[in-house]
Amino acid sequence: MDLTTATVLITGGAGLVGSHLAGMLHDAGATVRVADDLSKGERERVPDPVTFTKADLTDRDDVEQVITSDLDMVFHLAAYTDTNYDDDRKLFEENTEMTYNLLEAMRDADVEQFAFTSSSTVYGEAQRPTPEDYAPLEPISIYGSSKLADEGLISTYAHSYGIQSWVFRFANIVGPYQRGNVVPDFIEKLTDDPAELEILGDGRQEKSYMYVDECVSAIKYVVEHADEPLNIYNLGTKTTTSVTDIADIVSDELGVDPEYTYTGGERGWTGDVPKMRLSIEKLAALGWEPTLSSDEAVRNGTRDLIDEIVE
Ligand SMILES: NC(=O)c1ccc[n+]([C@@H]2O[C@H](COP(=O)([O-])OP(=O)(O)OC[C@H]3O[C@@H](n4cnc5c(N)ncnc54)[C@H](O)[C@@H]3O)[C@@H](O)[C@H]2O)c1
Q1: Which residue segment(s) compose the domain that 264 sits in?
Q2: Quick count: other Cβ atoms within 10 Å of Cβ 161?
């Protein structure tokens, strides 16, 4: 698939990753449209020349409006993304319904290429570094279960209905516009009280972080170079960063020296996977590798967010 001449729809294109993907693909020459219900994303993040439609993708009429036969490809990023949520049923139904609605509408409109943003959470507490062919997949959160259910639907449409698909299992992505996760959370807490920082869990949770610009360039590369009916790739960095390391980086960037207190326990919340690192050997074998370490990605994301939240 040559994305420099393609007409594509990005769902969730007003969010962190989607807005960056929209900008990058537009700059590369693609005709880009975005559909988002703005439940979490913001209209002004969608780059100007990109066509925007406000659409709730759990609504089949809204989906039919944005899936048109002139599309070459759909990038489905819209999701209920708060992993530390309080409404399991809404999360599961919303995520799986959107994916099902889109695939059905694509089949009707003869749109034959689909990319999907899955998550490391499909692996549950698997051994690390976790390769794409790791089995059995045993997610421990409803969010991870919803992503695995989505992957099941995509596999079916890829193998039975001819919709060629790319599934990206993300590590943690950091960058501007992010809210409701560890980096913006620490910035907000330390701006309120620079003397003390409460850290969920024991601070030793250790995960791999990837900077959003690298994430979207890896997506483009894989779509242009992997050509199976169903292509599954981990996207992440080779190293990890602990929660206490993140607190150190954020404190350093803010120029503060707080006392840390820990809520205790090995995980931040029920369903939190305490240690995550994805194997990115399959990605490297295809010819793409990240240039930033996990710590560098966290530092870049922290700088972006300090500019937004504090200044
Ligand atoms: N950021 C990460 O660390 C990470 C990690 C693993 C997987 N992912 C996946 O990558 C994708 C993008 O993540 P992100 O960090 O950019 O999230 P985000 O929350 O910034 O963006 C998601 C977008 O989807 C939109 N949306 C939600 N429900 C919708 C609906 N019913 N109809 C239309 N739009 C709707 C939101 O308004 C938002 O703009 C998601 O699928 C997410 O699950 C992200």
Answers
A1: 175-208+238-276+291-309
A2: 12
Identify whether residues 199 and 98 lie together within a single domain: no
Q: Are residues 142 and 264 in the same domain?
A: no
**Distance of CA 113 to CAs 64, 93, 132, 155, 286, Å?**
16, 24, 21, 13, 19
**Same structural domain for residues 219 and 244?**
no
Please tell me the distance between residue 77's alpha carbon and the centre of ligand 1 in angstroms: 5
Residues 47 and 103 in one domain: yes
How do residues 71-116 score in pLDDT, each as one tens digit? 999 999 999 987 666 789 999 999 999 999 999 999 999 999 999 9
Q: Which atom of ligand 1 is nearest the CA belonging to 121?
A: 6
Q: Is residue 1 part of a domain?
A: no
pTM: predicted TM-score of the whole model, two decimal places: 0.97
Q: For ligand 1, pick from 9, 10, 16, 172 the residue to mutate: most ligand atoms within 8 Å of CB.
A: 16
**pLDDT value of position 307:** 87
CATH number of the domain where residue 65 is located: 3.40.50.720
Mutate to test the pocket of ligand 1, among 17, 87, 145, 178 (most ligand atoms within 8 A of CB): 17
